[in-house]
Predict the 3D structure of the following.
Amino acid sequence: MTPFDVDEYLAQPLTARVATDGPTVRPTWYLWEDHTFWILSGQWSHLPAHVRASPRLALTVDVCDLATGLVRQVVASGPAAVVAFDVPRGRRKLVRYLGPDEQRWDPRFRAYLNEAERGTVWVRLTPETLRAKDLSYEVNAAAEPPAV
């Protein structure tokens, strides 16, 4: 397996899947800062209630590109907490996915930055375990791509 820079990989605007006790699994955007996953949430989501009831999460961020053979995954788990929202971190997270021009964002994303109005919180996961794997392969250029 080829090593890769986990911080660089997790800095990309990828989608994570977060699993809570129950079990429930949901896709989410995230911010990876200071070896911690930050997930924007609030009263519109069941995630904070799930975390308060059972504060362990598992999370995976993976890519599988059949055209290039790029297959990478990061799997993390550990205790999570619901913590107060801070606008600067929220802005960094949303800029990562939506670009720097907030006027082009859908109004609901701009509203998340007004925590008093929206009840926005963070779900914070500082992993006890974090495993990264690069399972990439070489694509045979002469082979037909798989039918989808």
Remarks:
- The mean pLDDT is 90.
- The domain at 6-134 is CATH 2.30.110.10 (Pnp Oxidase; Chain A).
